[in-house]
Specification:
This protein has strands spanning about 10-20, 25-35, 50-60, 70-85, 95-100, 105-115, 120-135, 140-160, 170-185. The protein has one domain (about 10-90, about 115-185). It is mostly beta strands and about 190 residues long.
Length: about 190
């Protein structure tokens, strides 16, 4: 009997990172990543996902106008970027099992996972603003960060017309979205 159990997933990535600091007060950073995979649907043309981030800081505590006896450190930070995710259990092709029918003992093909020709990367955009501080000869110090995360094309269950393809009434596709925000204190 034939053996169709082998699955080959291929990934390739490229990275570029850059950062620079001027006068020990100002800094920027940039990163770019491009991930490629062979598991995405033909309809999306999304085999390569560009993911990137950019950030910067301003160390206000080192500015002359901020030289205060009770202020030891005050740094402002900001970042924005996109990250991606892929679920290896999802596939643009249907997954079937070759089995023996219970009552007839004839071979049969049983569809286990419906295909999704529109399968693509999950993407999350993240924006972050932060402040690092130290006061009173570093007796009081900490960080305050505000973040905003916006997820799109997240994997989620959606209705499916089972009359066109077997008895499954739902299928997992890129239909989800999520928005989250909050404050981190440290």
């Amino acid at each position: 009997s034939p053996d169709f159990t082998k699955t080959v997933n291929r990934f390739v990535s490229t990275y570029i990172n850059f950062s620079d600091i001027w006068k020990e007060k100002y800094g920027i950073s940039f990163s770019f990543r491009q991930d490629g995979a062979n598991i995405f649907g033909a309809n999306t043309n999304d085999k390569w996902s560009p993911l990137w981030s950019v950030g910067g800081f301003w160390d206000l505590g080192k500015e002359q106008f901020m030289e205060l006896p009770w202020l030891d450190n005050l740094k402002l930070r900001a970042t924005f970027g996109y990250s991606g995710n892929v679920d290896l259990t999802r596939t643009p092709e249907p997954i079937a099992n070759i089995e023996t029918a219970r009552y007839t003992n004839y071979p049969m093909l049983s569809i286990r996972n419906l295909n999704d020709p529109s399968l693509r990367w999950e993407k999350v955009g993240t924006f972050n603003l932060g402040v690092d501080y130290a006061l009173l000869k570093n007796r009081i110090s900490g960080s305050v960060d505000y973040y905003l995360k916006n997820g799109k094309d997240l994997y989620g269950t959606t209705d499916y017309d089972y009359t066109t393809w077997g008895a499954q009434a739902t299928v997992v596709k890129n239909v989800g979205a999520m928005l989250g925000h909050g404050l981190d204190l440290a």
